[in-house]
From TrEMBL:
Pfam families: Radical_SAM. It comes from the Bacteria. It comes from Corallococcus caeni. This is STM4012 family radical SAM protein. Signal peptide: none annotated. NCBIfam families: PRK08208.1 (NF006067).
Length: 431
């Protein structure tokens, strides 16, 4: 595998959503959460709409929705949120995010509704850190004022590139002047954390043009920057083009990494870089390995200990719209059932802990031992292979990826999938 591409798959959760299947019989929502700690949850609200669909995008989103569809979705979101609140009982949230899709495609009234639902569950962004995704095409002064008034402390925008020819190559009709005006607006509002996303590996992109985008991004002093390698997935616009996409990505990654490290940013993961001036985390501590995630909205995922669940997943426009339609037709009682997901047995919970830890801060053998009663290196002999290849090593008692390992995170993560998860993913029929 090391002789091939380092870009196998982006592993941001375990198991991947293509390993999810219908749960028969459906699980009562109260039972799913009954044994889980609910004192430091993450609330995620998913808005499944965008103004347009980028050529690389395989997120669960529908472009250009009709107003009546958005209104019906908001009504269903209310039914779901209130049913979930009843099932959770007394709960405390440590973090929250509104993502998508593009949340700021909603009008001001729609955004107010989403914030009001979060408040019903006990999330006030003035007390609980909250992040919201925005786009240059959909955010304006009124929506920024709303986000600010509600207490949002982090806004994230996918710029991808500051060169119009490059964003056009990934089917994104974006004007750089509009991006810059939006960034000026966001910065003037004084959000504590601004995150920008850039993509490397775009057709026609070079080391020089990527560095141009990096320099343009730093003019706005973002507290966080995410550098994403271009992935071309089934059923996307780019996925239908007969072309190889592995040119230059590794050299572009190294360019971006070295550029940001030289300017005082700290590398948190393969993708994430944090500025020295970024504010310290506030609020209660959220531990992704131990604390649950409550996902609201069609397309959102929830993590309740051994049960991970969501709506069904699709990429093709007709399929996505069909899943959204099924969601808006659900009554309150149906939101009390978990119908689609993955139940993690003890072995899969070990896999999840190992993978998510290794790709972030590293595997602490003491934490692993305390949680599972066994030794990580005994449970996973492949860790020795990573060490033998110079991809990981012990640092102050924590088993961490080396620089060579970090840049191969998208190879190492899938390599650590269990056989059962790998088999399910291979069987998945993209739709």
């Amino acid at each position: 595998m090391l002789e091939g591409t380092p870009y196998v798959a982006y592993l941001y959760g375990y198991p991947h959503k293509t390993a999810y299947r219908p749960l028969t019989p459906a699980l009562p929502l109260e039972d799913v959460w009954a044994k889980e700690r609910r004192d430091a949850l993450f609330l995620y609200l998913h808005v499944p709409f965008c103004e347009m669909r980028c050529g690389f995008c395989n997120l669960f989103t529908a472009a250009g929705p009709r107003e009546d569809v958005v209104a019906a979705w908001l009504a269903a979101l209310k039914r779901e949120a209130r049913r979930v609140k009843d099932a959770l009982g007394p709960s405390t949230f440590a973090r929250a995010a509104i993502g998508g899709g593009t949340p700021t495609l909603l009008d001001v009234a729609g955004l107010e509704t989403v914030f009001d639902l979060a408040a019903e569950l006990g999330v006030d962004p003035r007390d609980v850190p909250m992040s919201v995704e925005v786009s240059p095409e959909t955010v304006d002064a009124d929506k920024v004022a709303l986000l600010k008034a509600r207490g949002v402390d982090r806004v994230s925008m996918g710029v991808q590139s500051f060169l119009e020819a490059e964003v056009a190559a990934v089917k994104r009709p974006q004007k750089t002047a509009q991006v810059e005006a939006t960034l000026d607006l966001l910065r003037s509002a004084g959000f504590p954390t601004l995150n920008l996303d850039l993509i490397y590996g775009i057709e026609g992109q070079t080391v020089e043009t990527f560095q141009h985008s990096l320099e343009a991004a730093l003019r706005y002093a973002p507290e966080e920057l995410y550098l994403y390698p271009l992935y071309v997935r089934p059923l996307t616009f780019l996925g239908k083009k007969s072309r190889a996409w592995d040119d230059l990505r590794l050299s572009l990654y190294r360019t971006g990494r070295d550029f940001l490290l030289a300017r005082g940013y700290t590398q948190v993961s393969m993708r994430m870089f944090r500025a020295a001036h970024a504010p310290a985390a506030r609020g209660a501590v959220y531990r992704c390995q131990e604390d649950g995630m409550v996902g609201l909205g069609v397309g959102a995922r929830s993590y309740a200990g051994a049960v991970h669940y969501s709506s069904e997943y699709a990429v093709a426009s007709r399929e996505v719209r069909g899943i959204i339609q099924a969601y808006v037709e659900r009554d309150a009682a149906s939101f009390g059932e978990v119908r689609y997901g993955f139940v993690l047995d003890a072995a899969e919970q070990r896999h999840r802990h190992l993978v998510l830890s290794l790709l972030a801060e590293g595997v602490d053998p003491g934490v692993y031992r305390q949680r599972f009663g066994t030794e990580a290196k005994a449970d996973f002999p492949m860790l020795a292979e990573l060490e033998a290849h110079g991809l990981a090593r012990d640092v102050d008692g924590v088993f961490q990826l080396t620089a060579a390992g970090v840049e191969r995170s998208d190879l190492i993560g899938p390599w650590l999938d269990s056989e059962a998860v790998r088999a399910r993913m291979a069987e998945y029929a993209w739709r």
